[in-house]
Design a protein that fits this description.
Two copies of one chain form a homodimer. Chain A is of the alpha/beta class and about 300 residues long. Chain A has a single domain, classed as TIM Barrel (Alpha-Beta Barrel), CATH 3.20.20.70. Helix content of chain A is about 40%, strand content about 15%. Chain A is built from 13 helices and eight strands. Chain A has helices spanning about 15-20, 25-40, 60-70, 85-95, 110-115, 120-125, 125-135, 160-175, 195-205, 225-235, 260-270, 280-295, 300-305, and strands spanning about 10, 45-50, 75-80, 100-105, 140-145, 180-185, 210-215, 240. In chain A, strands 3-2-1-8-7-6-5-4 form an eight-stranded parallel sheet. In chain A, helix 9 (about 195-205) links the parallel strand 6 (about 180-185) and strand 7. In chain A, helix 2 runs antiparallel to helix 12 (about 280-295) and helix 9 runs parallel beside helix 10. Chain A is globular. The two termini of chain A are about 30 Å apart. The interface of A and B includes residues 3, 223, 228, 256 and 298 of A.
């Protein structure tokens, strides 16, 4: 149980933090938010989602946003895609640096509602995904497994599927010469607990010592940061998080936002795990987002931080 | 690192959760809140504070509240006291079940502002406290050390004082034939981190294997529940918490409320540590308090919980 010395943080706020907001944020404000994050030291930012503009009004400006954001050196900018069409649209922009990700879940009900697919369909379509990635000059990089610790529709029974689903995807990709470098466990509805996270991370690291295990945590029942700490204790060194803890999931009723990036980064730094993130920049970004959304965000650190210069 | 099978929770919401609220809550509403908590399975409730009514308007009705609350069987009702006069006033009510507590801190600046005293004065006055307790027919029960992990005024330097202050109080009380049964570490400003909590709980349990180590945690920087988990990992089995996570500290600028009782209880139950608390009762209590205060509370569980019957 040694906490990693370095932690990689993926900022998903501009996409996941905003996607459930009933207030559609102006493109200019999204660009300003991305600017705050771009100069914070965070190394990857998911700026939008490749969904149908008529389905998610908040994402209706995604093409404009992708065309206009001001990239900072050393930062990877990506957009979430849930199907091959979305991946193609992101690639066509020529401005994103998406890696090749496969998205599945332990819950087929979730997959059906979220992306109109199933785990079986995803496994069957792996070769098509890989050929898309190759055509775009990308290696297959990672696998994300959603509803890893519970599902709003199927409950906690899906937890038993985590290891088999992970094993099947890793095996299938390995057989096709494309073993994933990263396996991300998404606690989509925030029903994970520290002990579940510890066990899952520990089990997966033991099975796949060559694959990075990362965590995408939601704070629905208040255990989000405790779950992150539990992951750190087992050596997880890569986390998704959202500025100010903004967000939720449109397809999972009751889910709260991701853990707040600045709360996570504060804890990591205090535990000796460097993130490269400037907390002051994040406090500014979270305060700006709070102003734009006109509502207090769930994050704690940004609300009480005084300058730590 | 074995998580305790049973955890004792002290509800401090009616006192600490309300004391910083700018809205003075009607006595009737306080009584209703106490009723929700009384029937939740929680075994101790701090219902008010023995401060000067003209100093803390929220506590101006404390004598009336103490006279009128409806005790449930098996529940201990207490009021916080910071000086001997307060203890005497609580005793005089004849309706409270306070135990004998000594309150000190690692920070003299905090003690000066919070209770107009110092650690030295507290050590000097121990015999007077003990004689007050004896006169009231009470044993000396516990010691609380505030600002255990940091202080708004003196910063993190006070952390080094935690073990010496604890040792001095335990030694002094033991020499007077009144060794404490419990040592409570209060993270008054919420600057604790999981590793600090683990180390402190581990160190104190090693020094004082016969004394229960308990935690009073604030969630100022988002690590409150992670700190509780860290404490559980080291065997801490007693926590203060506040319904809905309501509260703050009037003498510590920027401090957020205690960890939310229902978030803590949810995590404990999921980790196999029984609290005896009905989450449904707490969800009702938190929703009631939210309505009374007219503001969203920091707790997470109560906002998204569906019935778990």
């Amino acid at each position: 149980m040694t906490i990693p010395k370095q932690v990689f943080v993926r900022e998903v706020g501009p996409r996941e933090g905003l996607q459930t907001s009933s207030k559609v944020v102006a493109t200019e404000d999204k660009l300003k938010l991305i600017d705050f994050l771009s100069h914070s030291g965070v190394k990857e930012i998911e700026i939008t989602s490749m969904v149908r503009p008529d389905r998610v009004p908040q994402m209706a400006d995604s093409d404009e946003l992708i065309a206009r954001f001001r990239p900072a050196p050393g930062v990877r900018y990506t957009a979430l895609y849930l199907n091959r069409k979305g991946f193609a649209r992101a690639e066509a922009s020529g401005r994103l640096m998406n890696e090749g990700w496969i998205y599945s879940a332990t819950s087929d009900t979730f997959l059906s509602k979220n992306a109109n697919t199933s785990h079986r369909d995803i496994v069957t379509s792996l070769s098509e995904w890989l050929s898309d990635f190759r055509a775009a000059g990308k290696a297959q990089h990672g696998v994300m497994i959603s509803t890893a610790f519970g599902c709003a529709y199927e409950g906690s029974a899906v937890r038993d599927r985590l290891l088999p689903v992970a094993q099947e995807l890793v095996d299938a990709l390995s057989q096709q010469g494309s073993r994933p470098k990263e396996l991300s466990l998404a606690d989509t509805v925030g029903h994970g607990t520290p002990e579940l996270v510890r066990k899952a991370v520990g089990d997966l690291k033991a099975r796949f010592p060559d694959i990075r295990i990362s965590l995408h945590l939601h704070d629905t029942r208040g255990t989000g940061i405790a779950n992150a700490y539990a992951g750190l204790l087992e050596g997880a060194d890569c986390f998704d998080a959202s500025v100010g803890g903004a967000g939720g999931c449109p397809f999972t009723p009751g889910a709260a936002g991701n853990i707040a990036t600045e709360d996570l980064a504060y804890m990591c730094e205090e535990l000796g795990a460097s993130t490269g993130i400037s907390l002051d920049s994040y406090v500014q970004g979270a305060k700006f987002l709070e102003q734009v959304l006109g509502t207090r965000l769930p994050g704690k650190y940004y609300r009480t931080a005084r300058s730590r210069a």
